[in-house]
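User: Show me an example of a complex going from sequences to structure tokens.

Assistant: Sure. Here are the input components:
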Amino acid sequence: DAKTTQPNSMESNEEEPVHLPCNHSTISGTDYIHWYRQLPSQGPEYVIHGLTSNVNNRMASLAIAEDRKSSTLILHRATLRDAAVYYCILRPRGGNRDDKIIFGKGTRLHILP
Amino acid sequence: DTGVSQNPRHKITKRGQNVTFRCDPISEHNRLYWYRQTLGQGPEFLTYFQNEAQLEKSRLLSDRFSAERPKGSFSTLEIQRTEQGDSAMYLCASSLVEVSYEQYFGPGTRLTVT
């Protein structure tokens, strides 16, 4: 499975934007970039995913480098509720694919009030 | 629909005992996954089902572990002769693969083996 590299932890102030980086230099052309997050004492939850173009949804934005070897999850205005572990994951696309999620250790995001 | 539910939420057992966890996926989701998470680590894949068929098992799933999804709805994960190393959070997720890549996770069952 293709690997991702993320910082172990990051800090941000409340109400400021947060940029969470992810390197995936061995990404293949058939891999989507997914982000999940895990709030304290909860199971992971889906945040966003993309293939080549930047993506926006109500939770976050995903900026994907032109060569697809890195991406950045952007939280536009962090709140205390965004404190969580954020996982950057590569997942193959296509029909009856093996779609188990391979999680790394993720980035633990601390939000300072 | 209230999402994926798991029972019990917490289980404390003595080494050597058997335990069984239950997962109720989101209704009509055809895939169901089990993961295990230890402190400070990301979740690790254990096994998954498409309807009632178990399609893949991780090497982490030793002979003491067995999972079933008899009618393609809820699933159970049983651990026989528990060991202290089995202490972890056991997470269940479900998805409707034809619609979305997204997996929906339950809150997990925390197992402590003493």
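The lines above are the inputs; the final block is the predicted structure for all two components together. Residues 91 and 101 of chain A are 7 Å apart (CA to CA).
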